[in-house]
Model the fold of this input.
Amino acid sequence: MKKIAVLGSSGSIGQSTLAVLRSKPAQFKVVALSVDSDIVKLKQQIAEFRPRLVCVRDKEAAWKLKNVIGPLVKVFCGEDGLNELVKDREIQQIMFAISGSAALRPLISAIKAGKDIALANKEALVMAGPVVMRLAKKYKVNILPVDSEQSAIWQSLGGLDSASVRQVYLTASGGPLRKLAAAKFKNVTIEQVLRHPRWKMGKKITVDSATLMNKGLELLETMFLFDLAAEKIKILIHPEALIHSMVEFNDGVTMAQLSVTDMRIPIQYALSYPQRLPSKLAGIDFYRLGKLHFEKPDLGKFPCLGLAIRAAQDLGTMPAVMNGANEECVNYFLNKRIDFLTIPKIVEKVMRTHAKISNPILSEVISADKWAREEARRRIC
Done:
């Protein structure tokens, strides 16, 4: 039985992970959970899964939980608490479903503790991919991708390395605004942006899907996970979202991974690898499917993708700066402080102002992220 920690258990990926674990009680045991501040949901999860350890990032919420939870559950709080939790000896694999850059330090701590990682967070790799991958190699830790596209690439590679790859097609549904004319973007509402046609996800990643920044983040994630140059990765709009990515090999053969749009599929594979455990989820009915469609992305309509491509070419601290500025802008958009079109404008200005460090150490990456957030807020306010 594999002992699992789920970080970000109250979010979309966290809850899907618990659904997988619930369905496989003979294979998995939940020993640790973490949330940002939703202790109501966490208490429900504690009652069901009975973890030995939990962490709440928000200190006030953590204190409230301590006052009502029994002595059998140890409660950690804040980032320092999470850094301690991931080192627990009983934990064998950690699902990183924390959103945004907040996952970076706990991820580093988990790798140094020798824990295998199921990685659903892309921002940590975007910020510090070379640092993270070097540490994973040093500590002999497996980083198993959970994002559907990176899982698809991993499965399509079938154990072959990047030297065998001619190019990768990283697919994207096109997001909730694919059919909307660019002239209407100025007045697009939060409700429109959060209405994704294929996936049910958290707010931040859904906004990133609308700007196509999410696909840019995945471009960088793919580079670092699979040791691929940016020019070998092609973004392909695929509205049906059934082909999750494709790998074209040097001999001209293309391998693709197809499945229904349900995150429980890549989650289960990352947790059960190298096994393929049975699932009750339906496969694709190819008789009813009909046609599949593909388009080139419109960088004029979706400038955030172009900014991410630029960051992938520049590397150094530029991806961290782009990510930090974008996270701030998305937060301001969700709080109705800026409009949709302002997101790429601010990110571009922050990137243009940044003095890049070419081969940063971790502290320089964190400093660049902090600077980018402050610069984005300054330009917004």
